[in-house]
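= Protein in question =
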Amino acid sequence: MKRIAFSLIFAGVFIALGPVSVSAVELLDGIKGSDDRLIMESAEYPWSAVGRVHTEIKGSHCSGVLVGPALVITASHCLYDKRNRWFVPVDRVHFVAGYAGVQDGEYVAHSKAAGYFIPSAYEGGVQSSTGNAGHDWAFIELKEEIGLVSGWFGVMNFDQAAMKLHDQWQTPFVQSGYSRDKKKLLTAHIGCDIESYQGNLKLLVHKCDAVPGDSGSPMYLFKSGLPYLLGIHVATTKETRLVRGVAVPTSTFVQGVLEKGAGNPGMPNSGTLLPNETTRTFLATMGYTGGGKLEDAIRRFQADEGLTVTGEVSYDLVGYLIVAMVREP
């Protein structure tokens, strides 16, 4: 597969590699052409499993995703304090699932970290490089099993062979996170492209509209209607004619996920996070509602897709809707 030479932007800093000099500039880059981000209802599953990682560093946040009741995956650089030149103490790390603000009722669930793991090969506070980016992932273990409330993603082994297979199937990919310019809003780029699997660098190159604040955000697909993580967005390239996202594929850390007893998706333990508004919006986009009852529109959609016809909103319905939306001409 063709190698792509690129520069990287980590946390808003433009890093040029090779013979090009380093230039520190504040960029809201990462939009590839038009801005295709859509605002999602963060209090509905599966969006509720995505959240913000806070480290009590003023003006800073990252994104992350639950992959178990108390296990979050994010980017390593999100846990590094450049001012103090250290990885932040664990008691300063928080994860807020389904974030819409910091007041009670403005998020689905919250927990402080009990501990976190960063690969020994990752170097914090150094000039960023493609080699270091391949190690830019982290596990955060939470004090509380908030995933039982918010739900969590499954994790599949997304390697080069898996990417070729899903390319053949024309599987839609999704990225969602908390972009810095959107503040309290969760956005998603539905049907974005993963262009290549850079096996020699252990990186994915993608065209999802991920910007500062989206570091640590999940890239995923839906299987049997449920979300499975493929990679974690960690950086953005910057060249004259090529702007691409860079993600760490799950093949890098999936064994660690399995060792922690995770890997399968988990739905919320109550019906309070059913994707009612998401379902209504997606069905309307495809022309199914027509001003009638939501349950009738669901039945028509389920019948067209060969699904069991229930007319009910369910946690796995969003996945089927996304696949159908992206397939639409």
Summary: The two ends are 29 Å apart (CA to CA). DSSP finds seven helices and 19 strands in the chain. Residues 157 and 251 are 5 Å apart (CA to CA). The chain has two domains: 8-259, 271-327.
